[in-house]
Amino acid sequence: MTLPTRVSLVDVGPRDGLQNEKEPVSTAHKAQLVAMLQAAGLKEIEVTSFVSPKWVPQMADNVAVMAAIERRADVRYSVLTPNLKGLEAALPTRPDEIVVFAAASEAFSQKNINCSIAESIERFAPVVQAAHAAGIKVRGALSCALGCPYEGEISPDKVERVAGLMRAIGVDHLGVADTIGVGTPRKVQAALERALKHFPLQELSGHFHDTYGQALANIYASLELGVHTFDASVAGLGGCPYAKGATGNVATEDVVFMLNGLGIETGVDLDKLVDAGAFISGVLGRPPVSRVARAVLAKRVG
Ligand SMILES: CC(C)(COP(=O)([O-])OP(=O)([O-])OC[C@H]1O[C@@H](n2cnc3c(N)ncnc32)[C@H](O)[C@@H]1OP(=O)([O-])[O-])[C@@H](O)C(=O)NCCC(=O)NCCSC(=O)C[C@@](C)(O)CC(=O)[O-]
């Protein structure tokens, strides 16, 4: 089986990773994290979200963070926008890409964005149109594609259905998200195969939380299908406010280490990435969740 020779990594640490932190993280620290990620070679960074500050207070400084980051022409900066209000607030901050997020599960849709799946698609349609009119690419995240904290198992049929709805309103790229990290390799392949009915390989990505330690295996299973774009979160930061017990995304350091071992190019410098993870973990006052980061840091100490 031939695996892709190159993988694009989207570091979602500044957004997905930090959104659930109880203590406020300063705007300056968020901007510093973005700076360190791009210095490590990340070309796609999810910076913040334009959601209700009552729902997700940690992202309330979205405009300030977007103003504080030092942009590089070769890096794409994305932000989450759940509705037109979010898009209107985001546009002046010049994101390269916006993310709309639907769920494969009705219950999660209600908890996360306070509306049904059908209503969310209706809500996203004008957001997608307005983003395209502004020349901005739209990524869709499909939450709970492998399981839901409220509904349990999610069938591939549901993934295919919502992927189709996202495609129909013009979403350019689909991220299949295992929000609570319950997916296992063959189930992940089944979900991705259904999503591939609506999105081409180059516009499909995997977003795997590592709650049950399956994320790297799931990435490998995705590579077997030719999927070559993955979200990951430096230091393994994160957890979803609407998915109790969900841990962070797979750590970017762990993904880079595995891909390096497979001879798959990412353009990411592992040492500099570990520095970024150590920096933000220091800000948060705890060690990185990433096992690779811990091993590299321990080796440095000698
Ligand atoms: C979607 C809404 C806004 C609907 O929230 P709602 O309460 O249904 O919205 P509403 O239209 O009735 O408005 C209520 C209030 O929110 C305000 N409001 C309305 N929209 C915005 C906005 N864009 N920005 C700022 N403020 C906003 C609006 O102005 C109003 O303010 P008030 O009059 O009460 O003062 C809300 O449910 C929300 O913000 N939810 C947060 C969702 C979120 O951020 N979840 C985490 C990210 S998704 C995720 O992590 C999963 C992912 C992507 O990583 C993949 C995975 O792993 O699954």
From TrEMBL:
CDD domains: DRE_TIM_HMGL (cd07938). Its EC number is 4.1.3.4. It comes from Roseateles oligotrophus. One of its GO terms (molecular function) is hydroxymethylglutaryl-CoA lyase activity. Keywords: Lyase, Metal-binding. Belongs to the HMG-CoA lyase family. The lineage of its organism: Bacteria, Pseudomonadati, Pseudomonadota, Betaproteobacteria, Burkholderiales. This is hydroxymethylglutaryl-CoA lyase. GO terms for biological process: ketone body biosynthetic process; L-leucine catabolic process. Pathway: Metabolic intermediate metabolism; (S)-3-hydroxy-3-methylglutaryl-CoA degradation; acetoacetate from (S)-3-hydroxy-3-methylglutaryl-CoA: step 1/1. Coiled coil: none annotated. Residues 7-274 form the Pyruvate carboxyltransferase domain. InterPro entries: Aldolase_TIM, HMG_CoA_lyase_AS, HMGL, PYR_CT. It catalyses: (3S)-3-hydroxy-3-methylglutaryl-CoA = acetoacetate + acetyl-CoA.
